[in-house]
């Protein structure tokens, strides 16, 4: 078989294609019930089954929610459920229009999962009333398809990520089908437009499949959508250009839409199975398949009020949120709402107790095959610990602190290489085309880059069999890893530090998801989102100002302490220790910042393990603090480059002001600086005093923005004594050391700060300060003349020094 040919015949399986009377009745009843429950959640606080005429008292005082997309979402859900019943296919449902939350809550309720998880929301009249009252209300649930929604791994409120989450979910998950509903408003976002390329990285032999369903209803909050207004042939050409075989379903007639969508979905599923069967039985030559997708065109707000106050609502943007907004005060609106609700014939859908009738219940698959109950959407249930080799075996030999250089991230690459070997279906590295650049290339010794497009002679480590994920999109890499994590697998997202800000809002949203999941006992903990920032601001001297920015640290620091972790290992052995901890952790955002360039190594492996376990510690070998009383000044540091500058500053002070007592404190776990009541990693008051005293001034050299340290030490004894040097948005194309000079964080600046703030001045301080100023002037002239740093800076180490 040459490639995987897919015909345009919808399906040969007439059972899937043709809805018989029984299945049509089930699907339609379920759909009507879901629509009824959706509207009830938006509007009702009483009279859930309309056992009496609606009155204003039955209406919520605040009407919140989104109706427009919901009937389409429910139609898709109903038909996918039927497909699962007939085929046993494992599937999850990702709603890109995340504001369609009431539709997915209704689906979980009708399947019974919601009541199993939340017993108070029972399948009876009282439970239905609780379902309605809790929606988008104080003490209730959000209006999105959020973490509280059974079956969800995708919140959707921040548009653009449904496909990347879906593709991440099916990687190394061969039996899973991810239904990814893309809203046409969402389709206008940059991340979504870039994520159609996911099929260029999915291998049908070992991965599952994503079925994108582009839901075109031609309306967003206040106007039409781009794709909704394009001619159908233009939309199809666009999607075919991305590599999809497009099946289009359109209309608003019933039961015609049920019949057409059933045929389209059945045909798409059979094409997917044909692709996978060919790939897995050896009759596939490895070329990229043409995967199916569906374009569903249905009216926005379908089956809702056609007109309100003489203005067209259904089929327009006016149905996006709450089509009838004046129900409590406008009798005509109240009458329209009651007529709308009764149009679904709830008396046929719910029995005398308020439970779904047998016809509706029969539509749902059994047990874990229900999409709201799928363990793939509660991935912690499927998570297995990584088989991680002993990271000590990758140690850099350190015979003396600050005497040898190594590329620290290269050792991490070696560790991940062997994690790949030991975990061939549960670990992946995601990196925007920078794996080798970031010195993580050891992974290519055991895996190629994943790539399903054609390859040519001269391509290196590129094949359909590869499992290293490289695509020049931070959004894709970040989102793929989120989907991979949330379905129970492990990995790391590595990127240039400055460009982590491209996907920073994804980091924030994932942190919110993890935080809220901690409040839900039924949500099992998932592998942590591990983010490595390398090619950092301080060493992007050659790339210039655009590549110089440590902003993601600040972003993660704003996350709640339950989920946020920031590590700044100063050398390779600390990096290995930190990485081992992060790979074993659950439900955190672990941010690791470590540059890729050759850097001084300070700690033996045993010392690194102890240092990382404490999170911060005094480096006695670096200072002149004899322990007999408080030091005169404390030099603290967090981050690899600024640690070198701090150690160098301490050595200058030792050599030129030997009577000044200097203590050097290195911080590897940034969160230890926070008070323990504000973060679980916060060091005790006793330990904080042991490191920083309660009164001695601290000159703190920090990798990121100085304000972060002030934020972290807030509430500590005399926090104003911390004087922080860090990145202050001074950058250009220059030399490595000049980056520290421009940001006033160089060794010479630190020495002058120490002199200015020391509790006791010694002879020679003024001369040393003048010398530092002269060194800075000499540096400025030297780099312009020689295009590199001064030798005493460029080649500096502690080797051979007293």
UniProtKB/TrEMBL annotation:
Domain called Xylulose 5-phosphate/Fructose 6-phosphate phosphoketolase N-terminal: residue spans: 19-381
Keyword hit for Nucleotide-binding: no
Cofactor(s) it depends on: thiamine diphosphate
Record domain Xylulose 5-phosphate/Fructose 6-phosphate phosphoketolase C-terminal: where: 596-797
InterPro entries: THDP-binding, Transketo_C/PFOR_II, Xul5P/Fru6P_PKetolase, Xul5P/Fru6P_PKetolase_C, Xul5P/Fru6P_PKetolase_CS, Xul5P/Fru6P_PKetolase_N, Xul5P/Fru6P_PKetolase_ThDP_BS
Alphabetic keyword roster: Lyase, Thiamine pyrophosphate
Keyword Lyase: yes
One Pfam match: XFP
NCBIfam families on file: PRK05261.1-4
Family, per entry: Belongs to the XFP family.
Protein name (record): Phosphoketolase
Species this chain originates from: Paractinoplanes durhamensis
